[in-house]
């Protein structure tokens, strides 16, 4: 017997709203893609394969790397010496999804260790190179000329805009990514996390801490959360 | 082939749908990407792999076009605008072909 859904809900989910407007950009994106497929530039299967890969990557990969490095000194050493190889230990293969990486991702990967004396931050002045296999898609602000141009000139000023104020005696090193080299920051393990499991540690290693525009804290598990804190 | 210095009307018309960019700081332009944005990045990868529009070349065009003729658009729209603009410039499809394809896609997606 069919269930009655007169209240517009199905097992707690809202029913599909047939009156919702479709975004013009959704239409434009699909139109461009379909024209390219019709011209034989790539196939729908090519697109699906890249999409599947893109949906699987995100900052959770980098968080696992850092949490494991904080917990395992031998792994940390391997990660600092050969980032691409060490990534395989947490299931990240830089050769995916094509066997030779994506057109913009198969490069040398370096992990930059923060210390009490040195704070690292990454940028791509040339375009928007980003370590996608470990951090996923770059945030919008990372791709803006405003960030790229100013981070290499006035890093402390830009970091302050993110709410990160570093002591004057801490050296700030800005690493400029390019087509051959990708970087990720390994932040310092914060106080108050003694005895934590790797899973617990991974939760506080957010995307922004691995770009270098924020520091991990025992009570901070989201970059969006810190924005809300700042607004208060 | 040189880049057309004027925006394509078919692309400018989409501005009505999303509204002009309003960001004032770096942090406020961080947002959760919508599905079409992720799909567009995938299209960019496919175009680059096929040798039609290299990723680096596209990113430079995004800067150039996004800071000039499409300056009023939010940052997250730059890839799709730039790819469409560049492919039309290169004659891969015409503005009319894009307009027609958008109409047919719109009719399919808005089907009740």
UniProtKB/TrEMBL annotation, chain A:
Molecular function via GO: hydrolase activity; transition metal ion binding
Domain of life: Bacteria
Residues holding Fe(3+): 124, 127-129
Protein keywords: Hydrolase, Iron, Metal-binding
Residues annotated as domain Nitrile hydratase alpha/Thiocyanate hydrolase gamma: 24-214
Annotated InterPro entries: CN_Hdrase_a/SCN_Hdrase_g_sf (IPR036648), CN_Hdrtase_a/SCN_Hdrlase_g (IPR004232), CN_Hdrtase_asu/SCN_Hdrlase_gsu (IPR023900), Thiocyan_Hydrolase_gsu (IPR023901)
Family stated for the protein in its record: Belongs to the nitrile hydratase subunit alpha family.
Listed name of the protein: Thiocyanate hydrolase, gamma subunit
Organism: Nonomuraea wenchangensis
Automatic annotation (TrEMBL), chain B:
Protein name per its UniProtKB record: Nitrile hydratase beta subunit-like N-terminal domain-containing protein
Taxonomic superkingdom: Bacteria
Residues in Nitrile hydratase beta subunit-like N-terminal domain copies: 32-107
SUPFAM superfamilies to which the protein is assigned, alphabetical: Electron transport accessory proteins
Pfam family, one: NHase_beta_N
